[in-house]
Amino acid sequence: MTSASEIVTDDYQAKYGFADSTAYLDHSHKGINEDVVKEISRIRDEPIWMEEFRLRALKNFLARPVPEWGVDLSPIHFQDFYYYAQPAKETAKKWEDVPPEIRNTFEKLGIPEAERKFLAGVGAIYESQEVYNSLQKDLTAQGVIFTSVGNAVKEYPDLIKKYMGSIIPASDNKFAALNSAVWSDGPFIYIPEGVKIAMPLQSYFRINAQGMGQFERTLIVAEPNSEVQYIEGCTAAMYQKSMLHAAVVELMAKKGAKIKYITIQNWSKNVYNLVTKRAHAYEDASVTWLNGEVGSGRNMKYPSIYLLGRHARAEILSMAYAGANQIQDTGGKVVHLASDTSSKIISKSVSKDGGIAVYRGLLHIARGAHNVKSTVRCDALLLDEQSKTSTFPYMEVMAEDATLTHEASVGKVGEDQIFYLMARGISERDALSMIVNGFVEPFTKELPMIYAIELNRLMALEMTGAVG
Predict the structure, then answer these.
(1) For 189, what's the count of Cα atoms within 13 Å in the CB-facing half-sphere?
(2) Which of 136, 368, 408, 428 sits at 20 to 30 Å (Cα–Cα) from 357?
(3) How many domains does the chain contain in total?
């Protein structure tokens, strides 16, 4: 019988890791310094207050050391990356107006088809710029804003001044500072009071150029009693040389608002994925992070939710796959600052071919936050003897009447499990896939059907090739 440790090959190159020949309008900003930051601001035709925002952040970035906890980041040489590449003159509103070579890339990845079938709005970000954006007309009529942060700086400056950096300031950490200095396009979503969007909004991020850094900035503001579901996906061309993705995501859920944020992370294994994600939830609001971490070689991501009003709710559900040459260092943080709040953190990881999966979680219940309820569960599945998993859960409880549960488990796929399924006519490959899919089912069942299918397909891609 083939052992579980022989079941993964990397077909990423053919399906996602291809590179297209793109004629960039600007692609000369290798390395980072004050002149580069000023030039990025000039190219984007930004107001002086945004240039000053960037320059303040640059000082923060240069003053901070590279973090020494977690993944080893010492191989990163910041002067070796390109910090800005402009692939198109402006954001297209019609798919036919996107430059042909870029349109070809997204068509290979299935983005236009997804838009036609079930999306309320879609944005396509290629390197440093949003190249396409579309939103259903009825949502526009209701006052919904779905555009790039770059466009919002010009079209909605008061909103950007008010909210950008209010949840994650540039001084938060080194990579938040880096992002704030050289941020590139990501979505700005504004949902007016009482508006509930039934269908998802989506953005898709693509890195194509060798040695490229992408620094998307995402900002979602949900006014009282509004609802929105947002989905992001990502891929990158595969090179021998490392690429850097350092994003900042800020969510503001006001009284009674609901935000669900779904990520299917499928970067190539030459990408360092270093992301800061944080949400503020006010009275009766709820925020859900759903994170599927399949790609990147080195991944550090810990979405956090601050519960700031009574009856606010937080949910962080994550699934990480660590294959050969991958370290998935992920988790979640919830900070209870108000009474009668509740939270749930569920983490699932699968490790194979020497992959390393790490869970880091923080649960903080502040003094004076009464009647708090929280559940934390982290489960790991090892598919061979070479792979590793670790958990680092932290609980800081300052209130005596909190109700907490914490569970953790580590398991292996046994030969007897596979034999049992094979004895009933199931192939070895399918047997292993069934076991893994059953393990991550608490995560996938929360995804929209089409994305659950896509994630299962990505897992199958990682779990095939050496059997038979």
Answers:
(1) 36
(2) 428
(3) 2
